[in-house]
Fold this protein.
Amino acid sequence: MTKLLSSVKKSMKVLDTFTEDQPEMSLTEISKILHSHKSSISRILITLSSDGFVEKNPLNNKYRLGLKLLDLANRVSNRYDLREHAGPFMESLAEKIGEIIHLSILDGNEIVYLEKKGQGQPLTVATRVGGRNPAHSSAMGKVLLSGLSKKELADVLDVGPLVKFTPNTITEIPELLRELEHVKEQGFALDDEESFPGIRCVSAPLYSREGRIIAAISASVPKQRMGNMRIREIRKQVIETARLISERISLSGLKE
């Protein structure tokens, strides 16, 4: 079992003491609620204050939740807004081509599935909303990695080795960098049985109003249903759907 950091857990408890009925509290009040020494709670509050997670009301010297939490809440909210914007277009694409359509974002060196449409299709990959996969071996991951700056990409690739899942998985960083440059140039990415044997994928980027890649969609298709001619047809549909979703995102004002 993973060992929990007691200091982090205690910090979370401090944040959780603030409620709608009691949005501001003194050091003494927080200490009493948590049955902890004031010196211990004081150190936690100072740390949380330094990064904006809590702040002190200068009028009464009581603590309250800080604006950093609002920033984090907005990031979570944007993910759900993204699903709402993309969902209808993904559903339409799934019906049109008869295959599974995914929506994902990048989290470190992994992709996180935010949405999945076309679940009724047979002979495809078993994925779930909230699930994760390494970015380097998937079409959506390549699209998302291609949108990073050199510094961001270097940080991601420094996390660990590129794990091999199939004979086609890219496991060397120079080769992956060449692939990402190719993805940038052509505006889409392919996964030719690189994550799952027998599954090919086509992915295209979703852009924010500011022009940054914030997510990706993909079509996942069993190899026997994805010959070279059909892959070109599906690629065209995926790119067009991504364009329509990006337009919707831009009009809605959804931020990165």
Remarks:
- Strands lie at 24-25, 54-56, 63-65, 100-107, 110-117, 132-134, 189-192, 199-207, 213-222.
